């Protein structure tokens, strides 16, 4: 299937079929795909927690507002985290890069604009991996839902990944055949191509 057709088919699934589980092999493939996600100057300021343990998943579901039901119905929840400590990030992630990338890009164009800018830039890299991940799920025939509607403070406490702050989560599974949000029931709503694409 072409990428355009996949883009038309994928959607933020609201109701999953709890009888259809994704396999261990698919989970391992998704882990490898995320590890290969691109990032600015290959900075990789992230961690991805794959939650399959039913007890932990249920605790997280209870901290996920309107997303609770969806999390309870799938066997995989992936939590995307960003590194918290800028100094540690520079030492661990940037010191191994070609020096010119750090002195020619990171220092003058990111760091020079202040700590808030560095943090926002680091988070942007994690969001980029989300787009990559959602496309990979579609390619693998899996349904997925990105979720910012989660209690970040409680997620951090439950997952206890030292030095990493959760940003959002993604459920992965198979949609219920009657899901009201399926594009067959709820056509995709987007601005017109001419409103979002400029051709010069
Ligand atoms: C970063 C991000 C956070 C989102 N958070 C939620 C969420 O918490 N719950 C939910 O049901 N959908 C969530 N969505 C799904 C969007 O509402 C959905 O992608 C958008 O309405 C477009 O619909 P489509 O993905 O089905 O084409 C989120 C999407 C993104 C990209």
UniProtKB/TrEMBL annotation:
Q: Which UniProt keywords apply?
A: NADP, Oxidoreductase
GO MF assignments: oxidoreductase activity
Check the record and name the Gene3D superfamilies matching this protein.
NADH Oxidase (3.40.109.10)
Keyword presence, Oxidoreductase: yes
CDD domains, sorted: NfsB-like
* InterPro entries associated with the record: NfsB-like, Nitroreductase, Nitroreductase-like
The record's listing under PANTHER family reads: NAD(P)H NITROREDUCTASE YDGI-RELATED, NADH DEHYDROGENASE_NAD(P)H NITROREDUCTASE XCC3605-RELATED
Regarding protein family, the annotation reads: Belongs to the nitroreductase family.
Q: What is this protein called?
A: Nitroreductase / dihydropteridine reductase
| Source species of the chain | Sphingobacterium psychroaquaticum
């Amino acid at each position: 299937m072409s990428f355009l057709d996949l883009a038309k088919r994928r959607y933020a699934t609201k109701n999953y079929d709890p009888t259809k589980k994704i396999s261990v092999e698919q989970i391992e493939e998704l882990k490898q795909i995320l590890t290969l996600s691109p990032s600015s100057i290959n900075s990789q300021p992230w961690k991805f927690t794959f939650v399959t343990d039913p007890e932990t998943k249920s605790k997280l579901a209870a901290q996920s507002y309107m997303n609770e039901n969806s999390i309870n119905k799938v066997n995989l929840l992936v939590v995307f985290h960003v590194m918290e400590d800028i100094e540690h990030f520079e030492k661990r992630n940037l010191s191994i890069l070609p020096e010119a990338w750090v002195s020619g890009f990171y220092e003058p164009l990111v760091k020079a604009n202040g700590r808030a800018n560095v943090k926002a830039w680091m988070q942007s890299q994690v969001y980029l991996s989300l787009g990559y991940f959602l496309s990979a799920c579609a390619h693998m025939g899996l349904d997925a839902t990105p979720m910012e509607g989660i209690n970040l403070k409680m997620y951090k406490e439950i997952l206890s990944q030292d030095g990493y702050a959760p940003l959002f989560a993604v459920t992965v599974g198979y949609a219920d055949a009657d899901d009201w949000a399926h594009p067959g029931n709820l056509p995709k709503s987007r601005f017109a191509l001419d409103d979002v694409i400029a051709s010069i």
